[in-house]
Write a structure and sequence with these properties.
The chain is α+β, with helices and mostly antiparallel strands. It has ten helices and ten strands. The strands form three sheets. A four-stranded mixed β-sheet has the order 1-4-5-8. The protein has a four-stranded antiparallel β-sheet with strand order 2-3-7-6, with helices on one face. Strand 2 and strand 3 form a beta hairpin. Helix 1 packs across helix 3, helix 3 crosses helix 6 and helix 7 packs antiparallel against helix 8. The chain is globular and about 80 Å long.
Length: 388
């Protein structure tokens, strides 16, 4: 237990979550990795346990717990070795649902947030576009006011839960001539006419459904606008701090998991008459990986504490994702090497870990974009402020 951040209650929650994942999730993971479809029953089981409501108001069925319960939730999801399953869970709980909670009115919270906490509705967040990538401000999708409706046209891609979700939280430009100041956020039901989706075939995250989604004259009620018209870009930027810290935490947790598995393997694998954890070159590689992941973990915990206290940690969260995902990629690559030929076999977990980890420096803001954001804040003294 790290007493600086975790209480006895935190650790009881961690053990309960571990037991739940081993009993309810792990037996199905290989099937979900092969089919790319996470069966609906597990969402409701997560809802019944309260795992989707960790940080959300009790009024809507949440638990209103501190951010370190979320840290535990993220860490333990990484330690069952399915980045895709983990992504489907946290993209629902911390991407789609964050916008519902922060920008949705009372009706939206009752119709979408409450069943999301219960695991009865699954959400996705639709921001990235086929030709936009990290250029959120360059978004092409439009939302045109027409009486008491908006008509949405455009497309999104790389959307986690983009195929099987029940509702979509969508960013589109209500005033394209205003650039990023003309963007707004909407919620819409999956079965709304004009929405079509195509499942994408990925290198990793195989269990999650990642979709490309098109919107053709999709008519939604004007009341499905979330927050203020034209404030979509600041809303998105505000929540990026949490998303990037989530991906940093995911990275240190999966590296720790890879390291623990590798240590177990090395203690049992013998060569030249002794276990391979006795060879200096390999021991020092382990020392390097362990040192780097420990540095990331401690940094990420400190940023989680500051975010929990209400600080706007956009610079630090960007640093967390940039370095943690880089170290995870290299650390898991090195762990696979330490398994030799077995690391390259699908029967061993490192192959999946390596594929899943590679998305870290891409999704949620590429490392290249993060470096520029950090550079602007350090060199150009640019300040980012929360929208709300």
């Amino acid at each position: 237990m790290n007493n600086m951040y975790f209480t006895e209650e935190h650790e009881l929650f961690r053990q309960s979550l571990k037991d739940f994942l081993q009993k309810e999730v792990v037996p199905h993971l290989d099937k979900w990795e092969k089919t790319g479809t996470i069966e609906r029953f597990i969402w409701e089981k997560f809802g019944e346990m309260g795992y989707f409501g960790i940080n959300y108001p009790e009024k809507y069925g949440g638990l209103e717990l501190d951010l370190f319960y979320t840290v535990i939730f993220l860490e333990e999801l990484q330690k069952i070795n399915s980045g895709g399953f983990a992504a489907a869970m946290w993209a629902h709980a911390y991407l789609a649902m964050t916008h519902l909670n922060k920008e949705g009115d009372e009706r939206i919270k009752q119709e979408y947030l409450t069943p999301s906490i219960e695991g009865k509705k699954i959400g996705c967040l639709c921001i990235t576009e086929p030709f936009g990538g990290s250029d959120v401000a360059g978004m092409k999708s439009t939302a045109v006011k027409d009486g008491d409706s908006y008509i949405i046209n455009g497309s999104k891609t790389f959307i986690t839960n983009g195929i099987y979700s029940d509702y979509l939280v969508v960013a589109a430009k209500t005033s394209p001539e205003l650039g990023n100041k003309g963007m707004s956020i909407f919620v819409m039901d999956r079965d709304t006419p004009g929405i079509a989706s195509t499942k994408l075939d990925k290198l990793g995250w195989r269990a999650s459904d990642t979709g490309e989604i098109s919107f053709t004259d999709v008519r939604i009620p004007a009341e499905n606008l979330m927050g203020e018209e034209g404030q979509g870009f600041p809303y998105i930027m505000q929540h990026f701090a949490l998303e990037r810290l989530i991906m940093g935490i995911n990275a240190h947790a999966r590296t720790e998991h890879a390291l623990q598995y590798t240590l177990g393997y090395m203690s049992e694998r013998t060569a030249f008459g002794r276990s391979i954890d006795k060879f200096q070159a390999l021991r020092h590689k382990i020392a390097d990986i362990a040192s780097e992941v420990e540095m990331c973990k401690e940094f990420n915990y400190s940023i989680a504490k500051r975010l929990n206290q209400g600080e706007y940690v956009v610079k630090e969260a960007s640093m967390s994702k940039l370095l943690s995902t880089k170290i995870a990629d290299q650390g898991i690559y090195d762990c696979l090497q330490l398994l030799g030929g077995y690391g390259y076999m699908e029967d061993y977990p490192l192959a999946r870990m390596l594929r899943d980890s590679r998305l870290g420096p891409i999704g949620g803001g590429t490392s290249e974009i993060l470096r520029e954001i950090i550079a602007k804040m350090i060199i150009d003294k640019k300040e980012y402020k929360p929208a709300t």
